[in-house]
From TrEMBL:
InterPro entries: MECDP_synthase, MECDP_synthase_sf. It catalyses: 4-CDP-2-C-methyl-D-erythritol 2-phosphate = 2-C-methyl-D-erythritol 2,4-cyclic diphosphate + CMP. The gene is ispF. This is 2-C-methyl-D-erythritol 2,4-cyclodiphosphate synthase. It comes from Candidatus Cryptobacteroides merdavium. Its cofactor is a divalent metal cation. 4-CDP-2-C-methyl-D-erythritol 2-phosphate binds at residues 11-13, 37-38, 59-61, 135-138, 142, 145.
Amino acid sequence: MENIRIGNGYDVHALAEGLPLWLGGVKIESPVGCIAHSDGDVPIHALCDALLGALALGDIGKHFPDTSDEFKGIDSKILLRRTMDLVSAAGYRVGNADITIAMQRPKLAPYIGQMRSTLAGLMSVPEDSVSVKATTTEKLGFVGRGEGCEAYAVVLLLKNPA
Ligand code: MG
């Protein structure tokens, strides 16, 4: 395999009132949360798909099926750790990751730093190797109407020295 590999990931979950909201491994103060089989951490799911995609290992649904009781309500940080185990087993490490979260409300800016440090810790990279950005969609589409949250992730993997 080559010395560098790139991957991208995308995820979306519907929102409902009264559910906890977890984004980037951080609990967000919010009147709405994600409807999901797991804890519904959209950016972590996109990140896992980017990591798996970089190695052409399939997707998060293949490795952690939402039909399995094992993953019901699971903390997505565990899914990211397990995905990182697969990355390590393939002989790669994360070079950098860049994530964009699209959500109309609440404002996510106060949580960005904590998300970056949490994700960097889970991937064993320095914090400046992890970027998290948040945007609204100017009230357009399902995100703008507050019906859902979506996230995009891109990662670069570096091959470990032999
Ligand atoms: Mg998901």
